[in-house]
Design brief:
This protein is of the alpha/beta class. It is built from ten helices and eleven strands. Strands 3, 4, 5, 6, 9, 10 and 11 form a seven-stranded mixed beta sheet that branches. Strands 1-2 form a two-stranded antiparallel sheet. Helix 1 packs across helix 4, helix 4 packs across helix 10 and helix 5 crosses helix 10. The protein is elongated, with a radius of gyration of 22 Å.
């Protein structure tokens, strides 16, 4: 007979993976630690593999636990979506989502459009800021979900897609040829800015900041007009811009991953539903309007 997985056990598994602790998980769901341990033992018996291992005081996922993690998330999301689909008129929620402004149009038109249609009692609050600010809001519980530039220190972030940073300049003008390069860049609390300045310092190119903004669209406008150069994920380079390469004196840049992160310990069906819609949408190629 085929083994059936228990959704409650999978929820407990996800909480332990998130908190890194049986004790914290037990406290968050108002159960005893022995009850939580029993759920995981039964889940391991069903899977036939160990899911957690201890390294000193730290609780870590085994390779089998890492493999189960994505399956468990998808199963819980599908369960919540299935149940919610039969009570759309009864579900009410205020969901707070943070994201860089460049992804706003894709979020509204693609990810959230089905939510607006199928769940009329949902209120979605969008908050646009750079990654570091969004991570801080998530930590403080001021946001439920956030799209961020992937940060390896964020264990709870889930990578949705990957692109590569490139140097972008105007197709018609050549600000990159100036002795002191004019830059359009994000404000100081943005990881893109650090990649940009660190790389220019490494190749010993002088620069001046002509635009510092939290608006990615303003950076695109500055690059397209020839007022400055910047770095962008390669899928953001559109008409009126061109990519600079090593022949132009600009080295290759690292990859850039877009991730979804959520507030710790929050597993409301409405949030799971919207998180699933965002994942489906942002795993596809993202189109940016000109």
């Amino acid at each position: 007979m085929q083994t059936l997985l228990d959704l409650d056990q999978l929820r407990t598994f996800l909480l332990i993976a998130e908190t890194g602790s049986f004790t914290k998980t037990a406290d968050s769901v108002f159960r005893t630690q022995s009850a939580i341990s029993m759920q995981i033992r039964r889940l391991e018996e069903r899977i036939g593999k160990p899911l957690f291992a201890r390294e000193g005081r730290h609780l870590l996922l085994t390779p089998h636990g890492e493999k189960l993690l994505n399956y468990a998330r998808r199963l819980i999301e599908l369960n919540n979506e299935t149940v919610a689909s039969f009570r759309t008129d009864k579900m009410k929620a205020n969901i707070r989502i943070g994201l860089p402004d460049i992804y706003l149009e894709h979020m509204v038109q693609d990810a959230l459009q089905p939510i607006f249609r199928d769940y009329p009692a949902f209120e979605t609050i969008l908050h646009c800021e750079p990654t570091d600010a969004l991570i801080d809001h998530i930590r403080r519980g001021a946001l439920d979900l956030a799209l961020i530039t992937h940060n390896t220190g964020q264990k709870r972030s889930e990578v949705l897609n990957t692109s590569r940073f490139v140097w972008a300049t105007s197709a018609e003008n050549s600000p990159h040829e100036e002795l002191v390069i004019p830059l359009a860049m994000n404000k100081t609390n943005c990881s893109w800015r650090k990649v940009l300045t660190d790389t220019l310092n490494t190749i010993q190119r002088e620069y001046r900041i002509v635009l510092s903004t939290s608006s990615a669209r303003s950076i695109l406008m500055a690059v397209r007009s020839g007022s400055a150069i910047s770095i962008l994920p390669d899928n953001m380079v559109g008409s009126g811009m061109r990519v600079l390469n090593e022949e132009d004196g600009f080295p290759k840049l690292p990859s850039c991953a877009l991730s979804l992160i959520r507030a710790q310990g929050i597993h409301a069906p409405a949030i799971d539903l919207i998180a699933g819609a965002i994942k489906t949408s942002f795993r596809k190629p993202i189109r940016f309007s000109e």
